[in-house]
Amino acid sequence: MIQSQICFACGGEIFIVGTKTRLVKCAACGLGKTLDEIRQNYNSYHRDTVYFDSEKQFKNIFQKRVRLIGKFRKPGTALEIGSSSGLMLSLLKNSGWEVAGIEPSKEACKVSRKRGITTLNKSFENSKFNKETFDLVIMNHVLEHMENPNDILERINGILKKDGMLLVDVPNFESLSAKIWGSNWKYILPQEHKWHFTLKSLSYLLTGTGLKIIYAETHSGVWEYASPAKELFESLTGGKKRFFGEAISAIPNLIVSKLGMGTGLTVLAKK
Ligand SMILES: [Zn+2]
Prior knowledge:
By secondary structure, this protein is α/β, with parallel strands linked by helices. It has one domain: Vaccinia Virus protein VP39 (Rossmann fold, 3-Layer(aba) Sandwich). The chain is 36% helix and 23% strand. The chain contains 9 helices and 11 strands. It has a 7-stranded mixed β-sheet with strand order 6-5-4-7-8-11-10, sandwiched between helices. It has a 4-stranded antiparallel β-sheet with strand order 1-2-3-9, with no helix packed on it. Helix 2 (55-72) crosses helix 3 (87-94).
């Protein structure tokens, strides 16, 4: 059953997308929601091995985020919520940031600590931080999993210093791939993802919690990487299928990304 017919982000009207995935969507801001009953506890699905196995690829992706952060902010203190194996934080640390992570997975925590990253083994919901502690908070593919994004964003606002920044990465629910695949889109993941964000819905949520978007971009395929050329080269060793897929789709993906319809959405917001 749908408890409310009104979008909690913008107040728009909600409609049902498909019965198969039990998904609803806001007609005004595009926010999607997976209905509760099929979602699982975080412990049954966190994806440690994906990060461990594809570290080279993720390093190239995260390097792009670190570069973006550097365009807006000098190094200071940073917290990553859902920091997994600490790869992104280690890149930030290398560029002068003082970093800490918070990660519910024990395995990932171990790897992160081995890298020399201070990592708390708990969920953000169960943690406490002093007010105005961080210059930067990062949430990489985390917000879509969370029960109550509003509360989370309000708390983040509280722990950010004045002029502090929040970097959010989520799958883009208004991407071309989401439109083409509908309820079969690879990021629907009904057992894991509660929310499906668009730039508009994120913007409503962030503004409502006192944060203001200062930069947004979408990206697909090789354009998700700091170095698309490096990814193309490395995909050659990852099997011909991956290489040809990346190469053939490079130009269409560039156009789609520039139109705001890339599969990934990166948003920087400021307190
Ligand atoms: Zn809405």
